[in-house]
Amino acid sequence: MRIAVIGFGTAGEGRLHAYRTVTAGRVVAVLDPSPERRARARQLDPGLATYPTLAELLAAQPVDAVDICTPPNHHVELEREALAAGLHVICEKPVAVRTDEALDLIDLARDRGLLLYPAHNYGFSPMMRVLTGAVAGGRLGGPLRARFRIARDSHARGVPGWQPDWRRDISVARGGIMLDHGTHCAYMATQLFGEAPRTVSCVAQWADGDATAGMDVAARLDLEFGDAGTCEIDLSWVSDTRSNRYLVSGPDGAADVHDGMAEVRTADGLERTDLAPPNRDQTHQEWFPGMFADFAGLVAAGTGWDRPMREVVTTTALIEAAYRSATRGGEPVVPAGLSAAEAR
User: Fold this and answer.
1) Within 13 Å, how many C-alpha atoms sit on residue 33's CB side?
2) In which domain of life is the source organism classified (predicted)?
3) Tens digits of per-residue pLDDT, 120-161?
4) Tell me: the pLDDT tens digits for 266-320?
5) Neighbours of 231 (CB within 10 A)
């Protein structure tokens, strides 16, 4: 499969390296409006063609799919352009910010017979394998209670030369930590519970105390899954520590992943596993082969596409509901879009 990577910042450069670890796809072109970033791509791989726009690529050479790694404000327009041109799409999170955007993109993909695939790489992480393995077969019992804690002392910075702090610019990022780290937590929770939450409640801390600017720097989300249980998510860009913790518990045991160390306690005893990767690369290249194998396998099979495309909608709807709840002082909100997605 011939792939064009769109956006050659931190994520795009990491993706170029990651594609070298798979056999089913190869990067044949890189798109970026920055001459400096295009030069960087050619430095890393002199055989790559580089272009400033998708239109120029499409006029010059054939590709089968695009992998969109730009900041969020460009995602929807590039997804529409690529799907309209007959290309399968992988897109970094968030695939969309509004549920209506997500539903329209899914409709376009289905009409064109193409796959729109979310690059939800945490779903292919070692920590997620531990959590899903613990939940599978009812090993923890039910209902479940999940608690996710993501603490940072700042946002992740972009590449020098192009707005390194774009994550703090609402016009580019389209949201703050809820849209950034929260998106990962949203689809992880939905996968673990096997369904979308019934309601979402959220309180947020806003940059400069200004909720109208829309830049959240910390948030607490509570997801209610009915009889299945609950999930509590704490996110912060203003913590004095850096840590990650994912805890899922039930009446029969618990799975706890804390900064790369996993412990699973069940009736069978205690399992402890060190999940720390050999490198600390923030693009998580080691998770990519599993994700791309899933994407390529779905494209080849031509079936099973509802799963990733439904996840696009449920994730978008969950985060949109969290923002709506935060502006209402934490009032529970029913995520929109799931019933509409099923009806389509």
Assistant:
1) 4
2) Bacteria
3) 999 999 999 999 999 999 999 999 999 999 999 999 888 877
4) 999 999 999 986 555 666 889 999 999 999 999 999 999 999 999 999 999 999 9
5) 25
pTM for this model (two decimals): 0.95
Q: Are 285 and 18 in contact (CB under 8 A)?
A: yes
Residues β-bridged to residue 242: none
Taken as a whole, the chain contains a residue count of: 344
What is the CATH superfamily name and number for domain 122-343? Dihydrodipicolinate Reductase; domain 2 (3.30.360.10)
Can you say how many angstroms the Cα of residue 273 is from the centroid of all Cα atoms in its chain?
Answer: 25
Inter-CA distances, 161 with 181, 213, 339, Å: 24, 25, 43
pLDDT for 282 equals 65
- What is residue 156's predicted lDDT score, i.e. its pLDDT? 87
> In this structure, what is the dihedral angle of CA atoms 159, 287, 200, 172, given to the nearest 10 degrees?
20
Which homologous superfamily does the CATH classification assign to the domain defined by 2-121?
Answer: NAD(P)-binding Rossmann-like Domain (3.40.50.720)
